[in-house]
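I'm curious: can you give me some protein's one-letter sequence along with its backbone structure tokens because I've never seen that pairing?
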Amino acid sequence: MKLLGSLASPYVRKVRIVMAEKKLDYSLVLDNVWAPETTVPQFNPLGKVPCLIMEDGAAMFDSRVIVEYLDTLTPVGKLIPAQSRERAAVKCWEALADGLLDAAVLVRLEKTLRPAEQQSQIWIDRQMDKVHAGLKTMAADLAETPYCAGNQFTLADVATGCALGWLAFRFPEITWRDDYPNLARLFDKVSERPSFKDTVPH
């Protein structure tokens, strides 16, 4: 399998971590979707990464779709529970972490792609409100459990760790470590895993 992506994308990182936790072999093909020579649209009409190219040449895209597929390939390091309620809880955590990222990415694009005089502060504030609401909710839900969705490491922790890692990388001014000790403890714990150490964004 080949994974098209970038080293800075938190969505690509999520897939890479799942690949490592599942002990799956693949090659990472670096591609900048903003570059004129990008090949991503050949495989994903939306022009987004990650994009997984399988052995038969078929393509799969959207990180949530990809990681759910990868979790079925081997029983090693099972990350998504089989039971409906527990499964939904993990997927809901993933949706929250990804949604927080979606909002933060929109802010970054607004600030980096538009001239300052064309930027909408109302738009930026609206997206940042989502980021802070997401952090507050995740911290509250972690109050009673060592991991996001209970007592064991799951995809919820992968997604949350990727979201927090990207915020630390791109938005160091957001003081989530000081504001939410629960999130800091979780992040420090998952960051000790080889899969996280090997995929730090840069």
Summary: The longest strand covers residues 2-5. The chain has a mean pLDDT of 96. The first helix runs from residue 10 to 22.
